[in-house]
Known about the structure:
The complex is a heterodimer. Chain A is an alpha/beta fold. Chain A is 56% helix and 6% strand. In chain A, strand 3 (373-377), helix 19 and strand 4 form a beta-alpha-beta unit. In chain A, helix 5 packs across helix 22. The radius of gyration of chain A is 24 Å and the shape is globular. The two termini of chain A are 25 Å apart. By secondary structure, chain B is of the alpha+beta class. Chain B has one domain. Chain B has ten helices and 19 strands. In chain B, strands 1, 2, 3, 13, 14, 16, 17, 18 and 19 form a nine-stranded antiparallel sheet that branches. In chain B, strands 4-7-11-10 form a four-stranded antiparallel sheet. The longest helix of chain B is centred in the middle third of the chain and has 22 residues, at 249-270. At the A-B interface, helix 18 and helix 19 of A face helix 6 of B.
Amino acid sequence: MNALTARQQQVAREDLVLFINACFACTGQKEFYSDGGRQRVSIDFLHRYILGNYRLLYARTLAAGINDFNASQIIVNLLATGRLVESAHRVEEGALIAAALRRLPPQRAWRVLATLREREINNRRSRAIVREYAGSRDIVFDSVKYRTKVRSALRHTHDTKAGELGAFLFRGWKQHVFATPLYEAYRAGHYGAAAIYKLPFTIAEGLAVKHGIPRDVFLQKIEAQMTDGEKMRMQRSADRADAKSPVVDWTRLPLTKLTLYALSLTPEQRIVEGERLEAAMSTAARHALRRSPLRLGKVAAVLDNSYSSFGSSEKRRRPLAVAIASDVILRTASTEYRTFWSTPTDDPLSTRAHGQTDLATPILDALDWGPELLVIVSDGCENDPPNGASEVLRVFRSKLDPEHKVSIVHCNPVFDPDDYLLKPVSPFVPTVGLRDAEDLSTMLGFARFADGSESLGELEAYLAARSTSMIMERKPSAAALTKASAP
Amino acid sequence: MKFADAKIIEAVTLAGLTLAPSQVSGSIRLVPVLRPGAPGDLRIARRQYDEELAGVGAGKDCTYFSYIPHGLVMSWSDDGSAIAANGSQLKGRDGRVRDFEVAKIRWMQRIAQRETGNSLRLLPLHLAMEGFLSLYFSGPNIVWTEYSKRVVRHGLTPRTEWAYDGESIAGFENALRIFEIHENQVGVLVFVADAMASAFVVSTPDDYRSLHRTLLADFFGELIWQYALMYKTVMPLTVGIDEADVDDLAGLREAVSNVRHRWGEFHGVMAADLLGRPVRSQSVYQAGPFTLQRFMTDLDLDKENHFGEAIVREDGTMEYLKTYRLSAAQARRAYLLSQLAVAQWNLDDAATSLQTTRNELVLRLEKAGFGYLIEATLRTAASKSAWLLRKKGPFEK
Lengths: 487, 397
């Protein structure tokens, strides 16, 4: 890309930052200010635009720590246009796709592979990717738990020779007696209630209804088969069915998910669970920091708990949970720390999304305290007064702090589909997307590209380095992958 | 306890209230009205009605018909102590409902009906609308031969007006949904394409929060409905900070509070055709220290014209306010009637004062929907003379 003029480089850098930021925040779901359809149309356009103009960087975005929704989109789009890849980058792209697919949760990964059939994508590389992924998984378990998706993916690639897989997935499975215990349990579960407790929870749940098993009895007996996420989801449902709630090991849950759960509790429950929750949250924060270390000095956080941080029916309280989880992470990672809420609150966990968005006052309070780093977590829509924080930051940067003694970063959990970006609080402050507070250290690292101080070359180098490390992480099978993705 | 006489307002003012910066969605601009430290001795709660039509007694032999989605129940304390809102729960018998298979109709005796010692049920905006419809309702008091026999016998009945409900105002529902209610907000000014549409104020923030969405069930004039369809955005407004005036963070803080203040001030200017405009008002009910009244601005066809209802505390604080902006045609109709009334319903005098001829005035009345007031031969003569004028062409005498 050395032939690009300075202006072209600037445009390319801005395009990429815009896209990567969108990939951090957007999930194609309804938000407070916009509906899901608009989100999807908008992000889909961005994907096509970047894929058409910067294919290599588009693929390397997979390694930038983006969210699962966008990773899935990128994988499908890359596989759909395999012919256009330059031969020099073919191997890297294949390895990146395989690595990203392995990183996705299995239901999402199988969904991606099933999409290949819907989009009628069938070439040597896509078949190799499916074969490789299926080989890396416990295919017996996956073919039971994610039956429809696995069936769709494998039907497309005609790759069902292993064991009883073909007989299980396709026609006539009810007539077989399977040697594989899980398959046999699945078949038997359709005829008798005893066998269903050997099956994954989501499969057993439907069969339990079929056999008319009372909910409380079912939940009690199936507990051993539930994942942590399922146990978490079933807490409320178990209460309703008068069953004992499944015991969850909270320390193993990701921080943002835990926060979302805490916010969903009623005030009475929160008082009962309060201490345990807080302990679990700080443990989760330490786990997150161990995975991606972050060392900070004197930090102030301005967090938005206005009514719009409620999110939407599809992303219930997500922006608020991100703000609270960031609070915990920053508190753990910094030597000196203070929080400033847009509507002041004593106990973050008992706060609820309410009130107008006044960011100017907490930002002024925070700057008064004199921090080294100021982190703003907000959806960027402020209304008391409109553009108040924007003006404050402009005057602060241009007159009161021209040497940039205080670094300021704005983290935005919400994608604005009308402008294809994360609504900035001020053009003088870099804005980065943040879907999970655990990604905060990645985001703070990325912020230097968002504020335009680094060139396109540095951004390319950053992405290339992340891409290499992502491929190397899976070194044992990297050789096999390279072979699979070769033309 | 003894209270002073009814406090009748002469102009709509938001005494004791402040305006905060507006929140915009599409063409709808909502301006929060704040009241710090509401005493809580006047509570207003919503009572829902599910009938398709309601008939309400409005004076002797006269009934007001409309679709009425809800009533408001106000309860108050005489000694200024805070009370709980109990309107919708302690529901006594509120009129009678008759089921006519195709529709249910609720019959109520009065538009403002006392329920218990210290509570009153009123039908929001319908109270003011009924006042507007009953203007000059009795018709001519001298039996001029120009008027039809029906008007002489029965007055202006049936006097009708049309309005659009909030749900049909494009984008209004979304604007209310994403509006972020302030901590001590008690009301809102509604602008559509930056034209003043309505003001709604209650006494306490809790009541406002529960009544916020009832704005959707209120009614609005045709102009507002059209503006919401025609305009997608509002005028872009920005208030900036001049960095030359700022030397430190304290100065910046002061500048921000200044900006906030200027926003509120400017919204007051935007609503200048309602706020501070002289009104004629009429007391409806005296509830302890509170006076329920309905009012209407003077009819000026070059300005916005509003009518509404208000509850005012004896010290002049606005405790409840709900207004409706007349559409141009509605204002014109009321204006014609008022001119007739001023001229003692003498058509010739009224025509002279409007600087027109008798025939022209008859045609104007007919176009405004008041043809039924005028005697048939006169209407024919008027339309014939208009036809002759047209036929002659513009340059002939």
